[in-house]
Amino acid sequence: MSKLSQIPVRVEQMPTDDDVAIAQSILFEIHGKLQNLLAKGEGGIIDLRSLPALNQASLQLLEKWLSLGEVSAMVTGVGKTEVRETAYAGVWWLVFHNQRGDIVTESIQIAEVPDILKSQLGDIELGFKKLTRALSALEK
Amino acid sequence: MKDDDKSTNESRRNLITRLLQEPPSPENDSLLNETIGDRLAQMGVSRRGFMQFCAGMASMMAIPAAMVPRMAAAALAAKPSVIYMSFQECTGCLESLVNSSIQSSANSTTIENLILNLVSLDYQETLMTSAGHEAETIRDEIMAANNGSFVLIVDGSIPKDPTNGYFISGGKSGVTRFVEAANQAGLILAVGTCAAFGGLPNADPNPTGAVSIGELMASKGINKPLINISGCPPIAEVITGVIMYYLTYGAAPALDSLKRPRVFYGEDIHDECYRKDYFEKGLFANTFDDAGARQGYCLLKLGCKGPISNNACSEVKWNARTSFPMKSGHGCMGCSQPYFWDGGVTTAKANPVPFWKNGPYKSPSFYSPLPASLVDD
């Protein structure tokens, strides 16, 4: 049986009417960007840290509404970046950490695949060159 | 299997392992270009990792998140040449720059290297291994090869009179050295309050006749884009943020009347200070060890210059976003303002007026409270 200290506790703040309104306005924005993604193939990104009115309570509410989807990934490059698909396909929640583990920024990306998960062309080229060199060394 | 075959297989296996695992470098990969992306790859940082860095930087600079891929692509493709020249300064600004910590931790050197590679410091007397004539030759060659396009970072102020004997380096006066470089630069960054506004060398009685970079440029008719990144020292992330912006957009960010980037210097420190609630309630610390000080009351009466100082200390903070002066119990000293040191700080309005010329203080100390007329709210 778990001890009390082993049970994770998360303090949830009761959202005010303003908090609900703010979270709701972001839902509308997500809805619009999803519509754009379906119609034109262009999604978008919402930087949650750049919204001054978005406090912890409305952030928690938004996270609860969007919930979790099927995919989650962790990018371990310069600091860690958590990538989670929400319950709404094409809506991704990204949390960027620095190397110390602090959250640098959080954003929501509306896309088939978030940019941060895609292999970058320059890195692909470099990997290809390394493989080519290794294989040509084999032939010698 | 014969022993010869075993030996051949083993050496082939070792060769492939080595070739696949060793990081790319100019010695082992002739196709590497000298872009930032390739420099990062040599350090084991992928382009994706750089995008993570850019996401944090963009958020800090209020650049739209949708710009992050463009920001990363522009910076990765760039081959910026940067010449960093120091004049009458203490090297604190350079120390700040190399400790940029938007993504770093105390135990990591990766991002410090990244920043140095990002700005591609082709010439910096303190950091480069070359010295003397060799270093000067390198600088001349870089300036000639990148005429009109390199970024010139300057810290320290310069004696306006090139004949007064102060600041001679490489047999040339500070004025001559600066003018030679500035005439060929594409952008000039005056880093630190000494370069931006004169700073400590410019303080009364100013024995060397030191002036700011902006004043020297005006007197020599040098009409190049100038960005002042003031502070003693400036916040590391502010220096690198401005360089990132330039790499992304190919132009300087919006500037205030003192040629400082608005994104970092647009607000005064008081507005973003976490002690402001106490200020609004009229709760002040009267000494550094009274009950109010222990409870985190406003430090205005202890000489805090936050209400008339513009900088990003309250938001970006220092030492990997750990703290800033007010959080450590000391008021703002106004180090990012003109006339810092002997003149205290200015009103930071369109035409800054030093206290010592116009205000009630003939010789304001860092601990003299601001007059109420200068505190807006």
Structural account:
The complex is a heterodimer of chains A (140) and B (377). By secondary structure, chain A is α+β, with helices and mostly antiparallel strands. Chain A has one domain: 2-Layer Sandwich (Ribosomal Protein S8, Chain: A, domain 1). Helices cover 39% and strands 23% of the residues of chain A. Chain A contains 3 helices and 5 strands. In chain A, helix 1 packs across helix 2 (56-66). The longest helix of chain A is centred in the first third of the chain and has 24 residues, at 17-40. Chain A starts with 16 loop residues before the first helix and ends with a helix. With 377 residues, chain B is an alpha/beta fold. Chain B has 2 domains: 80-264, Rossmann fold, CATH 3.40.50; 267-377, Cytochrome-c3 hydrogenase, C-terminal domain (Cytochrome-c3 Hydrogenase, Chain A, domain 2). In chain B, the strands form 3 sheets. Chain B has a 5-stranded parallel sheet. In chain B, strands 4-8 form a two-stranded antiparallel sheet. The interface between A and B is large, with 37 and 44 residues.
Task: Please summarize what this structure is.
The complex is a heterodimer of chains A (140) and B (377). Chain A is an alpha+beta fold and 140 residues long.
Task: Name its key features.
heterodimer, A: 140 residues, alpha+beta, Ribosomal Protein S8, Chain: A, domain 1, five-stranded antiparallel sheet, 5 strands, 23% strand, extended, B: 377 residues, alpha/beta, Rossmann fold, Cytochrome-c3 Hydrogenase, Chain A, domain 2, 2 domains, five-stranded parallel sheet, two-stranded antiparallel ribbon, 17 helices, 37% helix, globular
- Note poorly predicted spans of chain A: none
* N-end to C-end Cα span of chain A: 63 Å
Q: Rough shape of chain B?
A: globular
Overall mean pLDDT of chain B: 80
- The total of beta strands of chain A comes to 5
Oligomerization state? heterodimer
Biggest chain-to-chain interface with counts: A-B, 37 and 44 residues
How many E-type strands of chain B? 9
CATH superfamily caption of chain A = HupH hydrogenase expression protein, C-terminal domain
The proportion of residues forming helix of chain B, as a percent range, comes to 25-40%
Give the terminus-to-terminus CA distance of chain B.
Answer: 87 Å
Question: How does the overall form of chain A come out from the CA principal axes?
Answer: extended
CATH topology of the largest domain in chain B, by name, is: Rossmann fold
Number of domains of chain B: 2
CATH fold call of chain A: Ribosomal Protein S8, Chain: A, domain 1
Structural class of chain A: alpha+beta
What is the name of the CATH class of chain A?
Alpha Beta
